[in-house]
Amino acid sequence: MEYSSTNVSDNIDNNTKQENLVAHNAHVVKLDPVNDTNEKCDEKPYIDPDIQKKLVRKLDLRIVAWCSLALFVNNINRYNMQNAFIMGMDKDLDIDSVAYNWAVSIYFIGFTIFKIPGNIIVARFSPRWILPTVTVLWGIVDCLISACRDYRGLLVARFMLGVVQSPLYAGAIFLFGCWYTPSELAKRVSVFAAVGMLLSGAFGGLIAGAISDTLEGVHGIASWKWLFIIEGLVSVSVGLVGFLLLGDYPHNTRWLSPNERNVAILRVRGRDIGKAYFKRSNWKTILENILLKPLTWLMIINLACLFFGINLMLNFAIILRDSGFSPSVSNYMLTPLNGFATIVSLVFAWTSDRTMDRAFHIAALQFFTAIWFLVLAVVNKGNNSISLLFVGAYATAANSAASCLGVTWTNEIYAIDNDTRAIGIAFVVAVAFIIPNFVNVKTWLVTDSPEFWLGKITCMAVSFASVVLTIVIWFLIHRQFMLPKSGKKSNHEERK
Fold this sequence. Notes:
transmembrane transporter activity; transmembrane helix; transport; Growth Hormone, Chain: A; MFS_trans_sf
């Protein structure tokens, strides 16, 4: 099917502004909304700014808003172990330091194993059905954690939680790349990550504190069990709403008007926007792009370094409890910290999009974070005063902004076709996620609280390493050294 100036004007009143959607100065644009095999045009097609503004607003309110909310409950379910631990789960299930860290880390084994298959399923089939379905499933699994009787049952439940949560993060990033332009992408990814990952920490602390204060022993159920039940049911509700809000791709989303659909196609023309190409892909090229390119492994190591920096925030409630604060106050203190990290992430996302720079934003943020981890590690060998602890925690929150930009950068590096982008994002993010969580088993032992000297010095080292890695990656991209290349066959090649 072709979208040209003639068939657009057949469907739109000639006296309206919309007639210029595709035709401008008698320029004809030929679009295939499924295969996107359009020839390069000398003249950029006209896009009505009013319709584009309405389209972007609709995308923000549906796709970005729901994905952010889904990631919000995803992370509340994923990172509620520290909340449950200080609410009595450690005593009820007889969990020591090593067992706690393994219960946290085993999640990422299931998460990593199913990350790539999950993202392939999202790209190959229907994001609007797959993403809400897995949200409902992980809500059910989180509810079932409350029924665990011992450490072994907790391990099984946490592994299954990682399995069903694995498609969301990379799947949502993939979906954003199908709709948004490069100048819009970092802000949306940062809103997604900030709301989903940072505000979840803020509200997770509030929820845990309120449950600890009001539901302990209600109906004979411990407060930590109520935590899993309530947060799981919220996830199920969010998943059900997702079936109503999400769309797939510009060419087949029903809640777009014809004008909005044409604009959506024009905005991403020249990129793969329709059905995934897995039946026609050159798998040899895709695997070479992901496994044999040095950029992939450098990005994995760099993202892993970025993800290390959130460990102070993830253990902040435990540090406060062991410094003499009550469990409820310790949970409540997560709220302003994560709120501040959210603001920082959004500010740097805006400046990154405005300057179209990722590398030097990340390097600067990581250098700043490394200095503060160094200060926290060397002052009294990690046994910091409460005032220095709070200042250091807020300063290292800058790492959250760097993490958001790192994921955005990954999406852009592999944006040569749907196949490479879907698998590339999933592979890089999954492996980068799991590395810090296995290292943390030894470096962030809860028995080291509140000093956590080894954890702080480790974060300092990897933050400095990230500065160097970011500059190296930028240099390789600038020199176009062994970058991913498209292996998708064109219609012309197939007809031969």
